[in-house]
Design a protein that fits this description.
The structure holds two protein chains of two kinds.
Chain A: E1 20-26, H1 32-46, E2 51-53, E3 62-66, E4 69-70, H2 74-83, E5 89-93, H3 95-99, E6 109-111, E7 121-123, H4 130-144
Parallel strand pairs in A: 1-2, 1-3, 3-5, 5-7
Antiparallel strand pairs in A: 4-6
Helix pairs in contact in A: 1-4
Chain B: H1 4-10, E1 13-14, E2 20-23, H2 25-35, E3 42-47, E4 51-58, E5 61-68, E6 73-75, H3 84-95, E7 98-100, H4 140-145, E8 148-152, E9 164-169, E10 176-180, H5 188-192, H6 197-204, H7 212-225, H8 235-260, H9 264-285, E11 303-304, H10 308-326, H11 331-335, H12 343-349, H13 353-358, H14 382-401, E12 408-409, E13 420-427, E14 432-440, E15 443-450, H15 453-464, H16 472-479, H17 483-487
Helix pairs in contact in B: 1-2, 7-8, 8-9, 8-14, 8-16, 9-10, 10-14, 14-16
Classes of the chains: A alpha/beta, B alpha+beta.
Family (chain A): Belongs to the complex I 20 kDa subunit family.
Pfam family, one (chain A): Oxidored_q6
Keywords (chain A): 4Fe-4S, Cell membrane, Iron, Iron-sulfur, Lyase, Membrane, Metal-binding
Chain lengths: ~150, ~500
């Protein structure tokens, strides 16, 4: 993204404009949060919302993680994060993603991604309902999304 | 010859668990040899570190055979039961116990990133350094054909548990499928050991959200068989909540498939009905996804219910869904002939449940459902599987209607737990779900469970071969695959 320096001061963070593109990753929980996110995605598509779930991290501005982080999924999360262009943000949804939930660290689980990386949005719940997730996303967006890393 | 294997197993020494018999090495070998000529389906194979246990289903009755592990080995079942291969590889990964004569000994769960080797072994040896990359071995035919190799998963931006497929596409059609599992492995067996029954029940409810009630019921029944009170007197509640879950999961699958087939009218109606059911579950049962509804994890002595108007809406909605599904150029026509699982393949892999029934392989652990329900075609393709799910939704709505909107009381669990061992099986939304548990002084000493997903993952190469790449998400959706339930 070096060409951006032609138009913006060096090191300036570009505010990400609408729409919000979300790449979702289930990192090894029971997939309950993913099921609720699927319900939410249907609502967003039907409502022509500017919040969208995309199928590749290369299009995404927000990496949304659900489930506890298993040892085998950790490198996959890292690859997805590195593949995201420009300003990018991390969200952890559900108890497992926030702090591990019932899946405390063990030989196969590292715990919650929220405890291991700086997440912009932490939403506990087992699982949070689609309405709660949407509410949190909208509230977080209006409160200042521009703190991207 | 079929009847000989159960007799052979019963000739073993009865164990603490009802229906479990301990065989000596010679009897186990005879059993394996006789299984070659028998159709007795194998549901699961696991170890507790001392013995190997094989779970067979004799009709709807579980039958377990056990054999002591000698020098870290036992005689493998995979040469005579194809579905046993993944269980043997998992046992090797977790315990370091090797199946002699196994058809495949490559790791299934362990991708080399765990900090220990054989984590459930008494003295787990340290693990070597993790591999830098992943190596796959392609078939000679695939190498000769050349073409493209495409990966699917573990992160596709969709909403299911992670797994990876390596698909070989020499031309338009898939020729080779390699599965790579273990991404969703959470070490549940290690977590369960030493947990109190209440703690274990909370974990059990979170094994797999697409079959949480089935896991709760199977675990409670296993506890009931072990002499605990948790599994007793909850048949009505288990049936009620189980059918509610079946409706929700099938509607979710149908809505997702309709999205993939671009049938907007079907997708919107199915998703609307699903949301109505989820909200009714929240209001009437306390949890949208029905987590922790049944004892011993659930609230004590609560009642579950669903309003009659929801059932009426579901009945009307199902009639519309059926009309939309079978209309000209509807989902049935579009999905016809894709992702075929033949009846022979289903029996070979031991696949039961709604996926097996859609292929024509009979088998249902629900005693309260009549077998005479007619179904258009049993070719085992995506259309048949979706039609079977739609039909099961209608059946489940009919079953729930018999309660006339009355609340069903869930018996209260109790805090005191003794010792015992038991197995419980139940028909989940996708297939049979079973739990085996050994409780000592109120704590879980050994545990294992299984569901249909592991067998389905093994059958994937056959189902996907010949399909085009664009059909893969649709076929996987119609199968109801859950890596969370398979990896544990």
């Amino acid at each position: 993204m070096a060409y951006l320096n032609l138009f913006w001061p060096d090191g300036a963070v570009l505010p990400r404009m609408v729409p919000l593109d979300i790449f979702h990753m289930e990192t090894g929980g029971c997939a309950g949060c993913a099921i609720e996110l699927r319900s939410l995605s249907r609502v967003l598509v039907e409502g022509h919302s500017d919040i969208r779930f995309v199928s590749t991290p290369r299009q995404a501005g927000l990496l949304l993680v659900t489930g506890s982080l298993t040892v085998d999924m950790a490198p996959v999360v890292e690859l997805a994060w590195q593949a995201m262009p420009g300003a990018r943000l991390l969200a952890a949804v559900g108890d497992c993603a926030v702090d591990g939930g019932v899946f405390t660290p063990g030989y196969a689980v590292l715990g919650g991604v929220g405890g291991r990386a700086r997440a912009s949005l932490l939403l506990p719940g087992c699982p949070p309902s689609p309405a709660e997730i949407l509410d949190a996303l909208i509230r977080w967006r209006t409160q200042g999304e521009g703190k991207a890393t | 010859m079929t009847a000989q294997v159960p007799d052979l197993i019963r000739s073993g020494m009865p164990a603490a668990c009802a229906g479990r018999f301990v065989l000596d090495g010679g009897a186990w070998r005879d059993m394996v040899e006789n299984l070659r000529h028998s159709t007795l389906p194998l549901l699961g194979l696991w170890s507790d570190g001392v013995q190997i246990h094989a779970l067979f289903m004799e009709g709807t009755c579980p039958l377990l055979a056990s054999v002591a592990v000698m020098d870290g080995r036992y005689l493998a079942l995979s040469p005579v039961r194809a579905g046993a291969a993944a269980y043997e590889r998992i046992t090797q990964d977790l315990w370091g116990i090797e199946g002699m004569g196994a058809t495949d000994s490559a790791p299934w769960l362990d991708q080399g990133r765990w900090p220990v080797t054989w984590p459930l072994h008494d003295r787990p040896p340290p693990a070597p350094a993790p591999p830098e990359g992943v190596e796959f071995t392609d078939d000679a035919a695939m190498v000769q054909a050349g073409g493209t190799v495409v990966g699917y998963g573990p992160a596709e931006g969709d909403f299911h548990s992670p797994f990876h497929l390596r698909l070989g596409l020499p031309g338009e059609r898939i020729m080779q499928v390699r599965t790579r599992m273990g991404y969703a492995h959470r070490g549940l067996c290690a977590r369960m050991r030493g947990a109190t029954v209440a703690q274990a029940a909370r974990l059990v409810a979170r094994i797999d959200a697409t079959a949480t009630v089935a896991h709760q019921v199977a675990f409670a029944r296993a506890l009931g068989a072990a002499g605990e009170q948790a599994g007793a007197d909850m048949d009505d509640a288990a049936m009620f909540v189980g059918e509610l879950e079946r409706i929700a999961i099938h509607l979710d699958t149908l809505a997702t498939a309709a999205d993939l087939l671009a049938d907007g009218r079907f997708a919107i109606l199915a998703a609307t009905l699903l949301e109505r059911v989820r909200q009714a579950c929240r209001d009437g049962c306390g949890s949208r996804l029905l987590f922790d509804v049944l004892p011993p994890a659930g609230d004590t002595g609560r009642a579950v219910s669903i309003p009659m108007e929801i059932l009426t809406e579901l009945r009307t909605g199902c009639a519309t869904l059926r009309r939309l599904f079978w209309r000209p150029r509807g989902m049935a026509m579009q999905a016809r002939g894709r992702g075929i699982l033949s009846a022979d393949a289903a029996r070979r892999w031991g696949i039961a449940g709604c996926v097996g029934r859609a292929s024509g392989a009979e088998g249902d652990l629900r005693a309260y459902v009549s077998r005479s329900a007619g179904h258009e075609g049993m070719g085992g393709d995506v259309a048949d599987r979706l039609a079977m799910r739609l039909q099961e939704v209608e059946t489940a709505v009919g079953i729930l209607s018999t309660f006339d909107g009355a609340a069903v009381s869930v018996p209260a669990g109790h805090g005191a737990h003794g010792s015992g061992e038991g197995v419980g099986c139940v028909e989940g939304p996708t297939g049979p779900v079973w739990h085996w548990v050994r409780v000592e002084h109120g704590r879980v000493a050994a545990w294992w469970c299984g569901d249909a997903s592991l067998l389905l993952f093994q059958a994937l190469p056959g189902i996907l071969s010949g399909a085009v790449y664009e059909d893969v998400p649709l076929i996987l959706t119609s199968l109801g695959l859950s890596a969370a339930g398979a990896d544990l």
